Amino acid sequence: MRVLIMMSRTGGGHVAAAEALTEALEARFGSECQVTQLDVFTEYMRYPFNRQPQIYAHWIRNAAWLYGLYFSWWNLPLLHRLGAHLLYQPNRSWLRKLFREQPADLYVSVHAAISGPVLLAAPRGPQRPAFLAVGVDLISAHRTWFDQGLDACVMPTRQAYECGLRYGMQPPQLRHIGLPIRPSFVNALTDRATARTRLGWPQEGHLVLLVSGDGGFGPVYRTVRALDEAELGCQLAVVTGRNRALERKLRAQRWRGPTHICGFVDDMALRMSAADILISKAGSLTIGEACVAGLPMILTRSIPGQERGNTAYIEAAGAGLRSRDVSRTVAIVKEWLADPAGLQQRAERARALSTPDATHEIAQLIGELLREPVHESAIDPTHDPSVGHKASTAAASIEAQLDRGSSV
Fold first, then answer.
1. Is residue 9 assigned to a domain?
2. What domain range includes position 281?
3. Most buried by CB count within 10 Å: which residue of 26, 85, 142, 201?
4. Cα(39)–Cα(17) distance, integer angstroms
5. CATH code at position 203
């Protein structure tokens, strides 16, 4: 069995979801399943589309409001289909080459913008491969997740699932399972004392963990300085991601209390286990990991579009609060540290939102898709009206069809 997981490095969430699914599939199927991760934008699209990760990062840093307008525009009826064609048409030869060079029994998308153009490029015929979308938007699920050409679409929350229902997708094509969290993250969670010992951090006092996404976005520097100057009697730990300039700036400071600075890390489970409070932007995967860790959240920033609604979701559940400015963040931390019982209650409510087994359930669904025929009701006739297949033989068929020039 061959599975290709299609993602893009437009933020850390898509990469984390791809890694989570890879871990679960390898654990479940071992050598029986060959799993490959692919950044479709950078590897199988032409300029300027292959610069999407850099464009996205620049957009979010400098004109997030404009990205929000783009997200909303592309989510309008009909326009989302136009968007898929606008991505497909200039890249069609590259996307067709994807199927020749990356044959698979199942193609899994963890990025909303990928499914549409890839499905348009997919080979037609009775041995068409299976396609699955695994959504990572907690609340504001974009219309492009719910392409009718998919064999199945998995959503992380009931709210996102209901978006799919509104956009015309029905079960069993549409599933509500949960957010794909890396099994290695779940397994690495431990008690606070053990985590602090392994990290070499003091056992005494509360610890506030600040994370601002893979790119180190948000008012991290000002927030850390304000918390330190407030002398709240707690430790601070900061993860700056791949923002090396921010890491150097923080390391150059003199701090009044215990402050631990690091850049990109692969042991976030240990750091969340050591913490009492998380301060972060409202990224879906960070929120998902914090819920599994039972970590109350202060959410300071959200990207317009896919993160809209995440903060309200956490607030409504009693697992955290929104803070629009640094002084408000300091006030919330001070209030929470003075109320240990309330802090513990928020931790329990965060854990109640978690779906730690979701990744394994998605892996089980992938196994079913690889072994069972596709339901005719799950196929959009504009993609291929005659689909009905056993996916276990799809890869060889793809290569044969494309060699004969039978792709779209």
1. yes
2. 188-352
3. 142
4. 13
5. 3.40.50.2000
- The contacts found for 324-328 with CB under 8 angstroms, 24 or more apart, are 324/300, 326/219, 326/222, 326/223, 326/226, 327/226
What is the SS3 string spanning 47-90? CCHHHHHHHHHHHHHHCHHHHHHHHHHHCCCCHHHHHHHHHHHH
How many angstroms from the chain centroid is the CA of residue 102?
A: 23
Q: Is the pLDDT of residue 343 over 60?
A: yes
* CA gap 252, 299 in Å, rounded: 26
Instruction: Please determine, for residue 388, whether its predicted confidence score (pLDDT) is greater than 70.
Output: no
Phi, psi of 237 (to 5 degrees): -130, 130
Beta bridge partners of 237: 209, 260
Helices (H), 338-381: 340-352, 358-371
| C-alpha gyration radius of the chain | 22
Look at residue 213 in the predicted model and tell me its pLDDT.
Answer: 64
On whether residue 243 sits in a domain, the answer given is yes
Is position 79 within any domain? yes
Number of H helices, E strands in the chain: 19, 12
CA atoms of 219 and 262, how far apart (whole Å):
16
- What is the Cα–Cα distance from 70 to 33, expressed in whole angstroms? 38
